[in-house]
Amino acid sequence: MLTRVEATYDRANQCHDDTRTAVIAEIINWARNTQKDSPRIFWLQGMAGEGKTTIATTVACRLKAACNLGATFFFRRDIDDRSHPDHVISSIAFQLSYHQGYIADAVCRVLVAQPDVDRAPTSNQFYDLLLDPLQKCRAQLSKPIVIVLDAVDQCGSAKERKKLLDVLTRLPDLPPMLKVLISSRPEKDIRDAFEQIDPKALIQHDLSTGESRRTVRDDIKKYFAAWGERMERRYPDRCKSNDWKKSLDVLADRADGIFIWASTAQRFIEDEEVYDPKQQLEIVLAGTHNHRNSPSAVLDALYSSILSQAYTANASNDSLKTFKETVGSILTTKYPLPPLALSRLLHPTLTNPYTAYDKLYGAVSKLRSVLFLPTRKDMHTLPLRFIHQSFNDFLTSKQRAQQFFLDPLTHHSRMMSACIHILKPRIHDPDFSDAEVKYAFRSWCYHLNHTQTNDENSKDIKAASRHNGINFLRDLIRGVAADEQRAVHEILDGGSVYREIYFAVKKFKVHPFLTNHPEITNHTS
């Protein structure tokens, strides 16, 4: 069985009716072009918030309806499995196999000969799971099959995604009917990689320039006009006036072509708990200004306005501290947690589920325009997460966020300590039906390896080991090792810093991976 990651699209995140029609039509026409010399790659590039993911989602939905969608991988920096290149190729190969039986047969033959191929380097996976099987099937590929890779810039750091970009430059080697839609920000390493591709094999569409920019501004005006009409029907006593309509035009102008600005402002204004769209609109207009040709400044002004309203209008240092502790935890989770699980992880003494939920809800309830915040009904199941990566980018830039800046190192350290604390009494018999316990068992190492490399950050582990005995350390490592091999790499890479952990990995040999790689087992630091 191929290792795969669920990194699909959200059907609800499609473009608003009658918007982005030109670029969507351009992509669909490219995707359905059956000429052999048609470019294999379509690169949709743009700055944060310009709608790349909604366009990719809309295209994926339409291609799926037409049976032209072969596979998708939507990267997300806030979900660990979806922010690394390790299983991208195997996930695509699995989906293509599901799409066509003859592809499945070709891939299965590879798996019989190489059962561990999905653990091989990315370049080997590309050849063995995609290039070679698909070349053998090329005669059966009678209509275009499209692979969609969204937000490639969220695939780790430039260093981490290099192995994926090396593979993407080889996409033109695939059979002519295999096409790949790629969306990303125009990061330098991505631009450099695509410059290596034959221009005849690549279409580039930049959402930030020329006609695209003007079209987006027109689309945002349509978006606000349609939303304004809905608000007038919903709040006839507050929204049906000439001033309201004029303000919508100002909002569209302030957005400056940034769709995430428009949708965030909309959510803030129509917040049902505030129930005062006119007042909320005034807050947005007072806190934002025109920032032509500076997408980050446009978003910064809006995010700062939302946060100031939530935490400094009434406020106190305690309010800001609560914001940093809670939102910093959301920022650094390995994968998004349901609100109840996150609250219990941060506040383990709160045994009543409603009390735990209410404590977390009270800390972030005014951030519903930038956070997906499940209700009490869904507090056990639906994840608490940022709506858009640009909010994460804002919070982690000291220059941009200023008083709201969140230092990931600090919050990873705090999350690691929370994981160890919750595992102390449960390490030998963990109850994985509790989401916070399962998370702590799987993720303490992830947080440890995202803190600063000093012994201060391993003091909780050392203290727990001294109190519970060396078996605590053994079981702690087994919990991680059973879940993912990369965590064992991370422990060993940090061996010179976290010596107790490093030597425990060697002593207990808790993962088959170690016995298969004697160069690691014999490593000394």
* Rg calculated over all Cα atoms: 25 Å
CATH topology of the domain at 21-208: Rossmann fold
Regarding quaternary structure, what we see is single chain
Residue ranges: pLDDT <50 for 5 or more in a row?
Answer: 508-525
The portion of residues forming beta strands comes to 5-15%
Say how many strands there are. 7
Helicity range of the residues?
55-70%
The overall average pLDDT, rounded, is 85
Task: State the end-to-end distance.
Answer: 36 Å
- Tell me, briefly, the overall form: globular
Strand order, main sheet: write it out. 2-3-4-1-5
Question: What features would you describe in this structure?
Answer:
There is one protein chain. The chain is of the alpha/beta class and 525 residues long. Among the domains are: 21-208, Rossmann fold, CATH 3.40.50; 215-293, no CATH class. The protein is built from 26 helices and seven strands. The protein has helices spanning 21-32, 52-65, 88-99, 101-113, 122-136, 158-168, 188-194, 210-234, 236-239, 242-255, 259-269, 277-287, 295-311, 317-332, 339-346, 353-364, 389-395, 398-401, 408-423, 435-448, 459-468, 470-481, 485-493, 499-508, 512-516, 518-521; strands spanning 41-45, 69-74, 145-150, 178-184, 202-206, 371-372, 385-386. α3 (88-99) packs across α4. The radius of gyration is 25 Å and the shape is globular. The model is unreliable at 508-525 (pLDDT under 50).
